[in-house]
Amino acid sequence: MSATPQFEEGTTLDRYLIQTMRSSPGATGNFIDLIQSIALAGKLISSRVNRAGLLGMFGGTGETNVQGEFVQKLDVYANTTFLRALEHRGHTCMIVSEENEGPVQVGSEWHSGRYVVTVDPLDGSSNIDVNATIGTIFGIFRRKSEEGSAADLGDVLRSGRDLVAAGYLIYGSGTVMVLAMDNGVHGFTLDPQVGEFFLSHPNIRVPDGCPIFSVNEANASRWQPGVTEFVRRVKEPVRKSSGRYIGSLVADFHRNLLKGGVFLYPGDTRNARGKLRLLYEAFPLAFVAEKAGGYATDGRVAILDKVAETLHDRTPLVIGGKAIVEEATSLMSADPKLT
Ligand code: AHG
Ligand code: MN
Ligand code: MN
Fold first, then answer.
1. Which residues surround ligand 2, an ion (CB under 5 A)?
2. Which ligand places an atom closest to the C-alpha of 217?
3. Torsion over CA of 44, 49, 55 and 58, rounded to 10 degrees?
4. Which of 153, 170, 201 is the last residue of a domain?
């Protein structure tokens, strides 16, 4: 894929995709259709999130998911909406979702689909009822298995380096879709009055430095020495760094992507692998971070160099600007292994 052509004000997501894919050899339009399906899901979820309080969509369903977490009504809506937006379009053969224990085969009539999608349909569920920013995170693989047959676990239990695209939608003061592909990272803002995403953040690059660090310090008593030392250093006055923690990974990451900084959710003596999931949180955001000149590790190795062993693998996560992530990783990699 060639370098991103310059786009004028008011470029729609569709125009960006068509112009970008035009220079991709062998592009069949399936990928464009897949991104448009994700954008549709984002519009529907955004609309429901913005009116959740009026539609009785706050609170839980009373069930717990495979993660052992209480499922929120909006988790279910977002998951159903995302799955339905991708099924029956012919571009996707399998979906792995935080909210589904097993892989979702899109349907025998669509075994021709060439993409496998991983998704956290609603990230930051604990923030829904308090109207804080939440989002949807997605990763896209090209299937390894034969088109025309059912997809299998080998299509998704693989290295993060196999991702062909990834991104997220963030439902905050506005709704923004951030999309990362080989040619870079671009942000599109939804104009709800016309129902269209317009290019608003072309060629996102993570700024240098560490103006912001994000970590849940309530876990500090369980941290390994390397984490404790890194957080102590980043709080030294000379660093002029501020602490910000929204509690929605997608929101904490998006702020650091645009302004610079680092987010950490390390493993600790209670959760050796931390809390966040590899396939549909860490992999996609690590892909975005690296395509924007940033970096992501698990405190030892690059997130994208890891191989998913189960659908809901958890991983420690350090993500943001390249230099600050490397500084944290150099301290954390000296810690005794927790697993
Ligand atoms: P999800 O809502 O998809 O389960 O993800 C929540 C995650 C992530 O968004 C956030 O960074 C983290 O939970 C916050 O965890 P703590 O409340 O333990 O800090
Ligand atoms: Mn999440
Ligand atoms: Mn979630």
1. 120, 123
2. 1
3. 140
4. 201
Which domain range does residue 103 map to? 13-201
Q: What's the gap in Å between 246 CA and the centre of ligand 1?
A: 9
pLDDT at residue 2 greater than cutoff 50:
no
Nearest ligand 1 atom to the CA of 134 is 9
Q: Determine whether 115 is exposed, middle or buried from the number of CB atoms within 10 Å of its CB (0-12, 13-18, 19+).
A: buried
Q: Using the predicted structure, report yes or no on whether residue 1 has a pLDDT greater than 60.
A: no
CATH of the domain at 35: 3.30.540.10
Question: Has residue 3 got a pLDDT over 50?
Answer: no
Q: Is residue 234 part of a domain?
A: yes
Instruction: Identify whether 2 is part of a domain.
Output: no
**What total number of domains does the chain contain?**
2
Residue nearest to atom 14 of ligand 1 (CA): 247
**Which of the listed residues 127, 248, 250, 280 should we mutate to test ligand 1's pocket, taking the one with most ligand atoms within 8 A of CB?**
248
Q: Are residues 197 and 225 in the same domain?
A: no
Q: In terms of domains, do 222 and 101 share one?
A: no
pLDDT confidence of residue 6 = 66
Dihedrals φ, ψ of 39, to 5°? -65, -40
Check: CB of residue 315 under 8 Å from CB of residue 273. yes
Residue type, 19: Q
Instruction: Tell me if 3 is assigned to some domain.
Output: no
pLDDT band at 202 (very low <50, low <70, confident <90, very high): very high
Same domain flag for 181 and 218? no
d(CA 252, CA 245): 6
Q: What is the pLDDT of residues 251-286, one digit of tens each?
A: 999 999 999 999 999 999 999 999 999 999 999 999
CA of 123, closest atom in ligand 1: 3
Query: Mean of the per-residue pLDDT values for the chain?
Result: 92
CA of 263, nearest ligand number: 1
Same domain, 41 and 184: yes
| Residues 254, 256, 260, 262, Cα dihedral to 10° | -140
Residues lining ligand 1, CB < 6 A?
69, 98, 120, 123-126, 216, 247-249, 265, 275
Question: Minimum-distance ligand to the CA of 125?
Answer: 1
Q: Which atom of ligand 1 is nearest to the CA of 250?
A: 9
Q: Are residues 218 and 193 both part of a single domain?
A: no
